[in-house]
Amino acid sequence: xxxxVGSPLPPPHQPGHGPAVGWSPxxxxxxxxxxxxxxxxxxxxxxxxxxxxxxxxxxxxxxxxGPQQPPVAPSAPSAPPVPExxxxxxxxxxxxxxxxxxxxxxxxxxxxxxxxxxLLIGPAGAGKTSVAKYWADHRRVPTAHISLDDVREWVRSxxxxxxxxxxxxxxxxxxxxxxxxxxxxxxxxxxGISCILDDAVFPDRPVVGLGGWKRHVGPGLLPVVxxxxxxxxxxxxxxxxxxxxxxxxxxxxxxGRMAGWYGSGLPIIDNSQLDVPETAHLLDEVxxxxxxxxxxW
Length: 297
Description:
Elements: E1 117-121, H1 128-137, E2 143-147, H2 148-152, H3 168-190, E3 194-199, H4 210-217, E4 222-226, H5 230-238, H6 248-258, E5 268-269, H7 276-292
Parallel strand pairs: 1-3, 1-4, 2-3, 4-5
């Protein structure tokens, strides 16, 4: 969204910020009024006047030498810069997180101690949010959970609910929320905090979905698809309330579109028969393989 930009208004006059326009500073200069130098009074009777002394001659330069230069006072050492105390770490140049480097080792990399950026993909009712929260809660390194649906719902008045129809307003708010999530993820990663994001990314919209996440976070983002069976998704969706609950027809339509991830090269977890801790454990195994051999996406 663009806003009109114009020149800011000049600030109002403040005391101590210079004279006001049309006001002469000489009218308020302290001290006696300007005028001719005063004449000293005559000496008192009986006391001789003090002899006038000529000013001492300034020694000139020695023969053969140029004019002397006045001595230069040594400059005071510059004060050291004030250290940053806010705890903010600036983003690295370019911003996007790179593919995590794996030290040469015979054992598989440990995803529980590596700083990662994970994108958990799946339809409504797949358990993305529950698995992402559990996975972030039980890691041995600092980890943040970023849900795109939560960020979209930061908009209160004027919220474009996709359930009422996908239009230009819901599309714009989705893109804005994804960009906000991407910046948050990069900021966490720049401060040494891993993050896991969840979103219902469709394989038939690569520019809007997966490509957008790659642009906003970086090529080091590790996508994983969570795709249980349709009956499981319908059962979990029925337990929801509010605008998070969809109609059965909508759930079936989304689940059918998500099936396009098969054959895409992305790792897919079928958690139909798994609870949340078991799915999170399997997610660690999948991420370990993705770190050793990043998927081509």
